[in-house]
Amino acid sequence: MARIKLFSGDKSIYLAKRIALHYGVPLSQVDIKRFSDGEMQPIINESVRGDFVFFIQSTFAPSDNLFELLLMIDAVKRASAGYITAVIPYYGYARQDRKDKPRVPISAKLVANLIQAAGANRIMTMDLHADQIQGFFDIPVDHLKSEAIFIPYLEQQDMSDVIFASPDVGGVKRARSYAKFFDKRLVICDKLREKANEVKGITVIGDVRDKDVILVDDLVDTAGTLCKAAKAIIDKGAKSVRALGTHPVLSGQAYNNINNSVLTELIVSDTIPLKSPSNKIKVLSTAKLFATAIRNTHEHRSISALFVE
């Protein structure tokens, strides 16, 4: 069997080190040299000829993280790596998955084209904003689900009065999977958005009175939707509101919004590092899940056992 090599870019090395620790191999060395104008040059410091190579890099802002990944893939392709997998815990630009108005790009598809053109043979990611993005690739995509880390955490909590909620209509499928697993009811928040990152109003569809509500979302950006949804749910008589959000983008006024909200807790994963700590934010690690998925891929075994049914 070909040797395995795990690499990471600068901004995801905190997660890559944890994944390597769970896997039981050292993280391979890559130097990211920068010219004075910011131009990047990754230098792979060991042979990868014929190896199974995994690059661990989330493509959150800035776009340097994406370009760094592309350059590293190109470097090992030209060094005759046997098989190249891009492990992208957070797939940036996934919100632009369709042409919803005239003269806009389908950026999620463009990013997929770039990764394939760079030389990746496989993609591994978690909680894509839209499942159909898997079809933007002409190579295998392992789409892991955050339920594998969130559900074990929730099973340790008091779930007697819990119901689940989606902060918008687009997230109903995601929230329903939790409601089905725990055999709980589901309510929906219908939001009126005038422009990106600004929510005008929210209507709660369903009875939440005297319940502990858990909002389920795939990413939290400014947290405006989550916080307004939580307030609307409390106003309708809920006892408490917590939230699950896989990817803590947390831009703009997100931390102020969360800290000043009625949310009891926001539970996120470590696909993106937090910019600052918060007493209301709990981080669960994806490292063991990704390490197991990487091992199964390297050993040509199924990863279906990693999905919560």
Describe the structure.
The chain is α/β, with parallel strands linked by helices and 309 residues long. The chain has 2 domains: 4-145 and 287-306, Rossmann fold (3-Layer(aba) Sandwich), CATH 3.40.50.2020; 147-284, 3-Layer(aba) Sandwich (Rossmann fold), CATH 3.40.50.2020. The protein contains 8 helices and 14 strands. It has helices at residues 13-23, 64-78, 107-118, 147-155, 172-182, 224-235, 254-259, 287-298, and strands spanning 4-8, 30-34, 40-44, 52-56, 83-88, 122-126, 141-144, 162-166, 186-195, 198-205, 212-220, 240-248, 265-269, 281-284. A hairpin with a 2-residue loop joins strand 9 and strand 10. Helix 1 (13-23) crosses helix 8 (287-298).
